[in-house]
Amino acid sequence: MATYPVVNNKTGDRKEVVMSVMDWDKWKEDNPDWTRDYSDPSTVPGLGIESVGEWQDKLNKKHPSWNQIIKKSERSGGVSGRLARKGSYESSTESSHETHDLD
């Protein structure tokens, strides 16, 4: 089910209608005085415009504690996570994954 914000062209009344996408076209035909209300950008259907920009910046603005979560997750990587950040993880895993011929 989708929520459609609508405005009455004659009275200026605003409301939200909840219905399936398939029923929306029929509702518009039955209610010609009502049109889709695009005045609130948060209710406008996505056109990919909202994905412009760095996702972490948007997340930090919306949820300021996001940086704390990122720092905790970096610390929780264990020894291999810390080694990977330092760039020495590959060398330590190569030695542990060496194959030995059993001939």
Identify the overall geometry. elongated
- Helix percentage: 40-55%
Low-confidence stretches: none
Number of domains: 2
Spatial extent as radius of gyration: 27 Å
Structure in words:
The chain is α+β, with helices and mostly antiparallel strands and 103 residues long. It has two domains: 1-38; 53-96, no CATH class. The protein has helices spanning 21-30, 55-62, 66-75, 78-86, 89-96, and strands at 2-8, 14-19, 34-36. It has a three-stranded antiparallel β-sheet with strand order 2-1-3. The protein is elongated, with a radius of gyration of 27 Å. The model has no long low-confidence stretch (mean pLDDT 74).
Features:
three-stranded antiparallel beta sheet, alpha+beta, 2 domains, 5 helices, 103 residues, single chain, elongated
Summarize this entry quickly:
The chain has helices spanning 21-30, 55-62, 66-75, 78-86, 89-96; strands at 2-8, 14-19, 34-36. The protein is α+β, with helices and mostly antiparallel strands and 103 residues long. It has a 3-stranded antiparallel sheet with strand order 2-1-3.
